[in-house]
Design a protein that fits this description.
With 178 residues, this protein is α+β, with helices and mostly antiparallel strands. Helix content is 29%, strand content 33%. A seven-stranded mixed sheet has the order 1-2-3-4-5-7-6. Helix 3 links the parallel strand 4 and strand 5.
Length: 178
């Protein structure tokens, strides 16, 4: 049975927290060093939804396989049409195309909300899968910050990629100033 995508709910937070905790402790997708607790993850989700950003999960047979959301790239009003994507996949579901499904859906959701640019801030140059996924969905490499974070006993770089959404910057933004 193939996974289904749906908006996240508060009831998903325990599983989302566990998926994120694994990424924090064992990966480089997040530069956090200590996994946040459920209360913090619930607060972060609420802030994302209050900003009219999408927050979705992939599930199969009631099991959450991964989640993705878009959030403000920067908080200043001039950036209101630009989002940053975040995607986390449960260890047991990695390599099954779940990340692609989530990112494709996230792009569609952001275009429907008239966001104009999506930015990917990918932790570490060794994140070949994430870089390839973003490239395959139309993201262009725009730069690499070398050695900007120190985690798991080594210096990590950040890979920056971007993709236009909808009409991109061909027209003025329609999103209201927050």
């Amino acid at each position: 049975m193939s996974p289904t995508l749906r908006p996240s709910t508060e009831a998903d937070i325990p599983t989302i927290t566990a998926i994120y905790a694994h990424a924090v402790l064992h990966g480089t997708a997040s530069f956090e060093l200590d996994p946040p607790l459920e209360e913090e993850m619930l607060s972060r989700r609420a802030a994302i939804l209050e900003g009219d950003y999408p927050y979705i999960v992939a599930e199969r047979d009631g099991e959450i396989l991964g989640y993705a959301y878009a959030s403000a790239y920067r908080t200043r009003p001039a950036y209101r049409s630009t989002v940053e994507d975040s995607i986390y996949i449960a260890p047991s579901a990695q390599g099954q195309g779940i990340g692609r499904m989530l990112l494709e859906a996230l792009i569609k959701e952001c275009e429907a909300r008239d966001f104009r640019l999506m930015v990917a801030v990918i932790g570490d140059e060794d994140s070949k899968g994430s870089i390839a996924l973003h490239r395959s969905l139309g993201f262009d490499l725009v730069g690499i910050f070398k050695g900007v974070g120190y985690k798991n006993g080594r210096w990590l770089s950040t890979v920056l990629m971007q993709r236009s959404l909808g009409p991109g910057n061909a027209e003025p933004p329609t999103r209201p100033i927050p």
